[in-house]
Structures are given as structure tokens and as C-alpha cells.
Design goal:
single chain; 287 residues; alpha+beta; N-terminal domain of MutM-like DNA repair proteins; Helicase, Ruva Protein, domain 3; 2 domains; four-stranded antiparallel β-sheet; 11 strands; 23% helix
Amino acid sequence: MPELPEVEVVRAGLAPAAIGSLITAVSVLDERALTRHAAGAADFVSRLEGRSFASAERRGKFLWLPLDADDSALIAHLGMSGQMLLRTPDAHAERHERIRLSIEHPQHGELAIVFSDQRTFGSLAVDRLVPDGPTMIPTQVVHIARDPMDSLFDDDVFLRALRSRRSAIKRVLLDQRVISGVGNIYADEALWAARIHPESIASTLSTQAVRRLLAEVRTVLAKALAEGGTSFDSQYVNVNGQAGYFAHSLNAYGRGGQPCPRCGTLIRREAFMNRSSHFCPRCQRRR
């Protein structure tokens, strides 16, 4: 599933073409792509056509494009395989195209924003924006915590949250109500870098260990962002259809049975919440 780096790559790619663009037409080819828009396709179209995008925002795995003139936004959740692609107006339909927005930018001219989704777990919607501190966010995002790349993320608040949790630290890293944007891949990589066992009880970690972990989370996310995200197949691509290459920089995730890059011990793979955890049993001893 696309996580913070992948969604941020998409947001940054959309921004130059979307901001200031007029939405001239909206085509809904598959209403399964509107599961988050309860009012249906006709309402979705009517609330977008003739409007302009004012900015491009993101929190965790959600991205949204606020609309001009009122407090609403086009919000997207990519699910497992959703893609937001920029195309020329005459481009052929994508194989799994669900929704197409025709836009006209004052400098770039006519373009199309295409939402393609092979597995149909992603969705678009028009949602109301509400205040969240100094920012405005969609109502569908109010339950999502700030992510560690957000300038308003409070390390001390995160530290206090861990003090009351008897869950494994990896479970906490994947809890979007505590910290957002850190998916399975990046949790494994940050825990490996911080030398913390994924099953360590969150409340038992020292302040120093938590701050070290947050630093490694930010380092891993920043590196993944610089390398265009992580692509293991064609389901995650940027707005131009290109894959990210952070998969070549992984130290723990997906390396079960291979030597740890740090000490040479074989990386262990264990079942975890219908997924897998990857860690070094020597570097990441459970205290």
C-alpha cells in the first residue's frame, strides 16, 4: 500500500499542474471509485466542474486538492493500487481508469488527471474542510495523526503517548491515530536503523530510544521520498507512470534469510498482523 513517501511524491507531482487549474469536465467510469463519496457520481461531478484547485495537501496516506470559493476539497486515498496520473487530453484511457478530470491550467494548457485503480480499494470524494489547529483538513482525515515530516508534529506528545501503551512498538508505529504515514516497510527499516526489536513494548522504551527511533523514521522517510518511493510492482507509480527505486536501499524489509548489512546475521522474517516483520535478531535484541 502506498505510504507517506509514495503519496507525497504523487502530491508534489500533481501540484504544479493542478494548482490554479479550472476543472472543465469530470467523467466517472466506475462508481466503485467513489466509495468515500456517499452522495454518488452526479453530486461528485456537479461539485467539481467549473471549480479550480487552490493547493495540494497531504497527511499520512491521504492527499487532497482544496477547491476555490468554499471550504471543500477533492480528497484521494490510493488504497492498495490507486494511481493519480497526469495525461494529455487525447491520451488513451488507462487499463484500470476509474475517473478522469479534464483541467485547463493558465500556463500548461489542457491536461487530464486520471484516477486508475486495479484493485478498486482506493477512492476519490469531495469533502468538507474543517479547522485543525492552523490548518484546514477534510472531515475524513480528522482522526489521522500528524506525520513525522509535518512541521507541527510534536515529538513530546508522541513520547507521552508511548508511555501509556503496552503494545509492541511496531503496532504503535502503524497506528494512524498516534503517528501517520509510517507503513510496514518504513517501520521495519526505521526499527532496524534504531536497533529496536519490533516486539519491544512501547511503554518500556527509554526517552533516548524513542527520540532515536523518531530520528530514524524521518531519515528513512526522507530517503524514500528522495528516491521516489518504494515500488515492488507496477501498482505504485508517480504521476508520470514511473516507479520509485527505494526498494534497492532496503536493509531489513523483504530481506528475510539474507545477511544483515550491519552485522552479517541472517535477517529474520516473522508473521505480523497479516503481514510480516523483518529484523536482525542480533542488532535488534528484545530487551
